[in-house]
Amino acid sequence: MIVHLWKVEMSLFGVVLPLLLLVCSAAPTVHASNSNMNIPSAATLTGCQRRCGNLTFDYPFGIGSARCFRQPDFKLICNNATQTPRLFLQDGATEVINDIDIDSDFTDLRVAFSRYIVMSSGVNVYNMTWKAPGRSLYLWFAELNITACDLDVFQLLDGTDTNAAQDSDSNSMVLLCTVTCPNMEIAETSVARQDCNGTGCCSSSHLIIPARTLQLRFVRHGGAELDRNRSSLWDGINITTNYAIITWSIMDHATGATTLVNTTNNACVSNHSKPIQNTFAFGRCYNCICDNGYKGNPYIIDGCLRDGGYNPVQRKAKCSRWCGNISVPFPFGLEEGCSARKLFQLNCTNMLTSSLQLNDHHHVMNISVDDGLVDIEDTSSYQRDMSAMHVSEEPELYIGFGESASVQWAVAGLTCREAKQNTSGYACVSIHSTCLAVYSKDGYIGYRCKCMPGFNGNPYIRNGCEDIDECKKQDICKGVCNNTIGTYYCTDCPGNTQYDTTTVQCTFTKKQNLLLGVGIGLSSGFGVLLLSSITIVLVRRWKRDIQKQLRRNHFRKNQGLLLEQLISSDENASDKTKIFTLEELEKATNNFDATRILGRGGHGMVYKGILSNQHVVAIKRSKNIDEGEISQFINEVAILSQINHRNIVKLFGCCLETEVPLLVYDFVPNGSLYEILHSNSSSGCFLLSWEDCLRIATEAAAALYYLHSAALVSVFHRDVKSSNILLDANYTAKVSDFGASRLVPIDQTHVVTNVQGTFGYLDPEYYHTGQLNEKSDVYSFGVVLVELFLRREPIFTTESGSKENLANYFLSEIKVRPIKEIVAAQICEEATEEEIKSVASLTEMCLRLRGEERPTMKEVEMTLQLLRTKRSNSCHASPENDEDMQPLQRTRADARCKSQAINLGNDAYSESQNNQKCNSYKLELGSIGLPQ
C-alpha cells in the first residue's frame, strides 16, 4: 500500500502542485502573537491528555481545555465508549489511526472515514461531501472502496454544484470507477470487498487531490428500479477509506517564506527550533522542527533538547546476542533492556533462517561495531532513504540509501566534546577506545566509538577493546617479534642463528642440512600418502557409482517415469511439485537423524527437514510398501499436484530413489485436530474455543467442497477424520493424507472401489455397497463435527467400561435427551442455544444412513459459514461480550504446552494409539450395525 501511495503521489504531483498553491493562498489569515495567546510550555500543559488508547500525540494537538491545543483545528476527541479508545479529529467523524509525530519532516496523519447513502426507487443520482475538519488540514491522498450495485462513481471538481442535474459539464466531473451488481450468492459487503474489482465493489484510488472538500456523485445505470430479489445490503451505497492521509500545517502568517523565516511571531517557540515550509504546501503553510542535533517538541518552550537517549549500561542481566548466525553486539539488542537505546532494538523473526529485521522494510545481514556499519537489504519494492526510518522520540542516526548497502550509524546526536562531558551517558566505556565524528552528505550526525590502533573488540562495553598480538602475523619481523600493549617491536636473530623464511623463525645454521634430509623424507612419505589417497578415492567413487545405479533402479521400480509424465503434462503441477534426489533429503534431515523425527507409527516415520533454500518441510518415510501400494503412492502425488487450496496441505514433491518412496510436505507445526481435541484436553493444555471450532470446521468443509466441486477433477478423499485435519502456525485447518483418495471423471457420480477408511468415520452405505461418492466424505465429516461437539474420540469408552461408536451414541442420545445435556461443558458455556441446535441438526443430516438424504459439502460449508457470520455480527453488536471473544493467538500465548508432532496420515499415530484402534474395530462394526 505504501508503494502504491508513493507511485500515485509522484504521478499526480504535476497536477496537485497548482491546487496546493491554491489551498494555502486561499486560506484565511490569522495573526497569532505572543501578546494575545499564552506561550505553551511544559508547565502550562500540565494535566493535558497525551494518549488515547494505543495512540500518542503532543501539542499543538490536544484534547479537552483550549490550553491543551494551539487552535480549534488541532482539537482532538477521544472516544472511550469502545473497548479500545479511538481518536478522532474535531469533527468527531474522521478517525486518526496512527501516532501523531510532532518533530518530523513528515506531517501526515493516517485517517479513516466512512459514509452510507440509502438508495430509493426512482432516484438515480446521489451525492456525498467530505470536508476537512479545519483550515489547517487538507486531504493529500485517499483510496476509497465503494460498495454498491450498478452505478458510476464521479468526483466533482471545485465549484461543481452537487445539486446540479445529472448531465453536468463533463469537464467538472471525473469518472473514478464503475461498479456492477454482484452474484445472487453474495449477500454481504465484506465478501465483495475482498477483491473490490468492480463487482459489488470498486476502488477509487485516482482522486484529484489535495483538497479540503471531497465531493462524489453516484449515477445509477439506466434508471432501473431496485431489484428487490437481492439482499437489502445492495439498496445503499457504502463508502469507506482503504487508505487516506491528511497533511497538517500552521497558517499564522500573511506573507511568504521570507517573512516566515525572519519573523519571531510564529509557532516555533522553543529554543533551537525553526519553521520550514510544509513539504506539500506553499505560501503561509509551515511546520516547526528542532535544529540538527536536537529532538523534542518545537511548539513549546524548551521543547527541543540535546540527545540524551543513549544508556551505556545494559539493564537486563542476560541477553541473547545471536539471531541464527548473525551476531548482535551491544549497543544493539534483541530484547527490551538489551540495547543502548530504542533505535538499536532489532527483531529476530526467525532463528533458523537468521532473519534479523531493522524495521518492516530493512533486513540486517551483519553488524560491525569496529567500522560503525550495518549491512542491510531493502526488501521493499522501491529504495528508501535510511534517514527517513523514524522512531518516535529518537533522533535519526542511520545514514545510507540503497537496495543493498552498508549503512553508517551514530550512537547519539552529540559532538565528542559534549558526549565526554556527560560521563554517565558516554558510550565509549572501554579502555583504549576513542570517539569519532559521523557525517552525512547533509552535515554532522553524531558520534561513534572505535578501539584505538593496536586493539580490537567492542568499545561500547567495559574492557571490550583487547590488545592485538601482532606477532601472530607471518613475516611481520625478519627476526624476533616482541608484542607489547597496543604495539610490537622487532629484534635481530641471536648469534649462530639466522632467519629461515621456510619455518618463519630463527634457526641454527648447522641444522640446514638436517632440515634438507627431513624435507626429502617428508616428500617420500607424501608420495606414498598421495598414492593411498588416490586408491581410497577410486574405491569411494566405485561405491558411489553402485549407489547411483541402485537409486536409478529404485526410481524405475517406483514408476518415476510415469510420475514425471503426470507432472510434466500438468502445467499447474509442474510449477509446484518437485522430484527430489535422496541426497537433497538426506542433507535436509541430517541423514535422517533421530532428533529430526516428528512422529512415528506402525507404518513409518515423519521427519522434519530444512531444504537448501531454508524452507521447513515434513518428510513422510514408510517402513515398507507393497508393489500394489506403489499405485496408491502415485495416486496421492498426482492428486496433490493438481489441487491448490489454502486449507489443503501443500505437497512440495517426492523422492523415488529409495526402496520405499518419500513424500515431502509443507511443515505444519501444530499437529492435528485429533491431538488438540483428545490428547491435550486430558493433560491440562489449552482447549479450542467454540469460535475456533466453528472456524476450523468451516475451513475443513471448504477444502472438501473444493475437492468435490471446484478442483480440476472431482476428488473423493475417502479418509476424512480429525487426525487428517492439521493445524498450521496460525491454527488454520489443512486437510491432509490423500493416499486413499480417488479421482473421479466429471460425468460420474460415484466409483466402485475396495472399501478403505478408518472405522468410526467409515460411511456405512459405502461399506455395504462399495460405491464411493461425495456423500461418503460428508458422513466422515459429520463424525468430525460430533468430535468437536462432544470432545470424545470416534470409538470411546463409556462409564461402564464398554466401547461405543461415537456417531451411533450421538444419534441415539439426541432422540431421548436435550442436546445441551449431550455436548461438552465448554460448548454449553461458549455457544448460544441456537448455534448448538443448528450444528446438531447439520451433524444429524450428515450422519444419515442413506447418502442421498445427506447434504452436499457445499451446503455444509455454507451453513457453517452462515453460523460464523451470525456469531460475528452478534458479537460486534454487543461490545460487552468482547472480553469473551479472545482471539486464538492469545489462547496460544497463554497455553502451557504446544504440540511437537505433525500428523500426515495414519503413519503419524503412536504404536499404542494404533493398537487401541485395531482392538476396537470389531466392537465398532457391531455398534454401527455392520457385519462383523
Automatic annotation (TrEMBL):
One of its GO terms (molecular function) is protein serine/threonine kinase activity. The chain crosses the membrane at residues 514-539. It is found in: Membrane. It is a single-pass type I membrane protein. One of its GO terms (cellular component) is membrane. The keyword Disulfide bond applies. Residues 592-867 form the Protein kinase domain. ATP binds at residue 620. Keywords: ATP-binding, Disulfide bond, Glycoprotein, Kinase, Membrane, Nucleotide-binding, Serine/threonine-protein kinase, Signal, Transferase, Transmembrane, Transmembrane helix. PROSITE patterns: EGF_CA, PROTEIN_KINASE_ATP, PROTEIN_KINASE_DOM, PROTEIN_KINASE_ST. GO terms for biological process: cell surface receptor signaling pathway. Its main location: membrane. Residues 1-32 form the signal peptide. Residues 871-893 are annotated as: Disordered. It comes from the Eukaryota. This is Protein kinase domain-containing protein. It comes from Triticum aestivum (Wheat).
